[in-house]
Amino acid sequence: MGILDAMVERRIREAIERGEFENLPGAGQPIPGLDTPEDELSWLRRWMKREGIDLSKELAELSPEQRRRLLVQLRGR
Fold first, then answer.
1. pLDDT per position as a tens digit, 8-27
2. Which residues, 6+ apart, have CB-to-CB distance to 61 below 8 Å?
């Protein structure tokens, strides 16, 4: 274990001793979406949902070729 690892472990242990991990929101609950398959754009969908961004109207107005090019650009290919 390196110096940084030891420092992180110590800080976590101290936080546990202070009770900073007790009564956290969602404790004991299943992690949402844990069983949902992921793809390379899953992070984008989660971010848009969290931020309340809905582009469905704009995307519906794109031609199939424009949608394909947009997906290629989002995937970084």
1. 999 999 999 999 999 999 88
2. none
In Å, what is the CA distance from 29 to each residue of 22, 23, 46?
14, 12, 19
The single residue listed with the structure tokens 């809905």 is 54
Between residues 1 and 49, the one the model is more confident about? 49
Asked if residue 17 is part of any domain, the answer here is no
Write down the pTM of the prediction.
Answer: 0.43
Give the range of the structural domain holding residue 60, as residue numbers without chain letter: 38-77
Number of structural domains the chain divides into = 1
| DSSP per-residue string spanning 3-70 | HHHHHHHHHHHHHHHHTTTTT-TTTTSPPTTTTS---TTHHHHHHHHHHT---HHHHHTS-HHHHHHH
